[in-house]
Automatic annotation (TrEMBL):
Pfam families: M20_dimer (PF07687), Peptidase_M20 (PF01546). It comes from the Bacteria. Keywords: Hydrolase, Manganese, Metal-binding. This is Amidohydrolase. InterPro entries: Amidohydrolase, Bact_exopeptidase_dim_dom, Peptidase_M20, Peptidase_M20_dimer. The keyword Manganese applies. Mn(2+) binds at C99, H101, E137, H166, H363. The Mn(2+) ion enhances activity. Its cofactor is Mn(2+). It comes from Candidatus Viridilinea halotolerans. Gene3D superfamilies: 3.30.70.360, Zn peptidases. Residues 193-280 form the Peptidase M20 dimerisation domain. The keyword Ligase does not apply. GO terms for molecular function: hydrolase activity; metal ion binding.
Length: 395
């Protein structure tokens, strides 16, 4: 499978660069979806649905004589001004594929090509469902991401297993990370205001000062992880926005604080929400008040042990025993978690760092990958699916 994937390398690079040069923000991936549809139609024998979850594409092929495996790739870009200097850099100013979704889409198209050949040779029994998902990076006005909307529109109905991969621009080429259990965190955000009366800077005693209250509220927020949560439970509370005041001699009437909460377990997730509320309530002890809105984000992602084992064995067979990076999971979030709530599934992290010593972190203007990872990812996806459809691995 890897040898055949390497033969597709030039085409995969072409697809990735085409998508990279034309990034589209969440739920606007019209051009990307059209490219996906055109490529699937060229391969032939694939039933294609468009407009799924607004701009997503679902493809399906195979036969009814076996199980169904789904493979997912995300398609959306980020609102970042690219600074890579690449010959195929973004032609849409202010938008950039800074997380590798262009590569994910290209690799899934490559895996589709490889699997279509296997079905044509009569090697496989069952069905493959292709999920080209919009909007992994953002929510719509109803607070729903592309992954959630796809699940709500039934793309996981009848699916027996689901797999995906994500490039890692900090992991060396040829390395992979795959683990059972928690693999991404639940993410919620908070948007609050500390409220006071405000007043003249020369007469602070005549009113209540929300900037003064800010210090104990921030202390309480940062104390949640240290003093309120079981220290063996992974979690974090981070403040990303503090804003208040416009003039040196005016005490403002409100200060805005916004941040994120990350966790794995459902119990800790609910505790974080309650503790953030308690932290803002500290303002009342100083004569102020608060407003607080909690935004619910993605659930924590769980890699099914059996599916993770398949992917690990495939990576071992294709890349060798030295390929594995055993780093602990972080607290990043991924809406692939909605899909693994519906069927056993797993996501693999694929090393894609360029070997020039420059760190090109995700979500930065200089993000980039070593494109030699593209056939590796296509082969891992295709071989994992093929073994399942040949009955070599099971649930």
């Amino acid at each position: 499978m890897l040898t055949q994937a390497q033969a597709l390398a030039d085409e995969l690079v072409h697809l990735r660069r085409d998508i990279h040069a034309h990034p589209e923000i969440s739920f606007t991936e019209q051009r990307t979806a059209a490219l996906v549809v055109a490529t699937l139609n060229e391969l032939g024998g694939i039933a294609v649905r468009t407009g799924v979850a607004k701009t997503g594409v679902v493809g399906e092929f195979g036969n009814a004589d076996g199980p169904t495996i789904a493979m997912r790739a995300d398609m959306d870009a980020l609102p970042i001004l690219e600074a890579t200097g690449l010959s195929f850099a973004s032609t849409n100013p202010g938008l950039m594929h800074a997380c590798g979704h262009d590569a994910h889409t290209a690799m899934l198209l490559g895996a589709t090509h490889l699997l279509r050949e296997r079905f044509a040779n009569g090697e496989l029994c069952g069905r493959v469902r292709l999920l080209f998902q919009p909007s992994e990076e953002a929510w719509d006005v109803e607070g729903k991401s592309g992954g959630l909307r796809m699940v709500e529109e039934g793309v996981m109905d009848g699916v027996d297993a689901v797999i995906a991969l994500h490039v890692d621009s900090t992991l060396p080429l040829g390395k992979v990370t795959i683990r059972s259990g928690w693999t991404s965190a639940a993410v919620d955000d908070f948007r609050g205001e500390i409220l006071g009366s405000g007043g003249h800077g020369a007469s602070p005693h005549e009113g209540t000062d929300p900037l003064f209250m800010l210090i104990p509220v921030l202390t309480a927020l940062y104390g949640i992880r240290a003093r309120r949560i079981d220290p063996v439970e992974p979690s974090i509370v981070s403040v990303g926005v503090v804003n208040g005041g416009h003039a040196t001699n005016v005490i403002p009437s409100a200060v805005r604080i916004e941040g994120t909460m990350r966790s794995y377990s459902a119990q800790v997730r609910e505790q974080l929400v309650a503790e953030v509320e308690r932290a803002f309530a500290v303002s009342r002890a100083y004569g102020g008040d608060y407003r607080l809105k909690i935004g619910r984000g993605y659930p924590a992602g769980w890699n099914d042990g059996r599916v993770a084992d398949w992917m690990e064995q495939v990576a071992h067979d294709l890349l060798g025993s030295e390929a594995f990076d055993r780093s602990a999971p972080g607290l990043g979030a991924e809406d692939f978690a909605y899909m693994t709530q519906k069927a056993p599934g797993a996501m693999l992290l694929l090393g894609a760092a360029r070997d020039d010593g420059v760190v090109r972190a995700h979500h930065t203007p200089i993000f980039d990958i070593d494109e030699r990872c593209l056939p590796l990812g296509a082969a891992i996806l295709a071989e994992t699916a093929a073994r399942f459809l040949r009955g070599e691995v099971g649930l």
